[in-house]
Please model this.
Amino acid sequence: MTDITTTTETAAAETPTDEVAAKRARKGTRADRQHELNQAAQGDDAAQGESLSDDEREQLAAHTAQLAANADEPAPVRATWKQHGNPTGGFVFFGTAVKSPADKGVKVGKIETDAQGITLKSANGRAIEGGAFGSATKFWAVVPADAPRKSDVPTSTPKAGGLAKLPAEKLTAPAGYVVKWPHGGYDLLKKTDKDAAGAAWLVRCNYHGTTKEVASAKEGDGLGSNAGRPSWCAKCKAHAEQLATAGAK
Ligand SMILES: [Zn+2]
Model:
């Protein structure tokens, strides 16, 4: 690259009338310089003025297309973090300017999100200049398809419209009972100790740990269902009311 530049400038200096070529040689690309070198060798047709011959136009168009093809870096896109697909790192940040992306991108190693918004950090953990903004702020970035992304799936699997089942250690049987028929949202517990107090069966809400005495497994199945639990589990009732309110909005 350096060699070509030197050679080109020398060639341009030797043909001072070719101002256009000299100018291009100074600010042009490698292809430009090679192009101008060829022109210089051909006897400076272009030196006659700004106008280019058809041949030269063709060459110019060809190398412009080549330059575009060589640009394998995709262009930055301006969007919010969510619109970018919630990338958590592995992308290149080009600033938050409205009009155009920064000339040079900064590799983002990881991001931090909180109530205030997003903070971009480099791989060494340092905050990136201009990389802290609100979640609604649009920024320029090139996000590869394989960049890590924040999943929208919550850590606990929601059941019954947002309810999470209690952990197993909280779903033990009370004294005198065993978990006879486990289900998703409820369990049926059978009394095994005839001397223990209480009904022959218990139905238990597996989301809240509440129990209700029932006379039979069949009755327990009815009361343990999603539709049945709000009739005896106060927390399921409150939850069902919340869902109804949210659904009515
Ligand atoms: Zn419940």
Observations:
- The longest strand covers residues 127-133.
- Residues 205, 207-208, 210, 229, 233, 235-236 surround zinc ion (CB under 6 Å).
- Residues 168-248 form one domain.
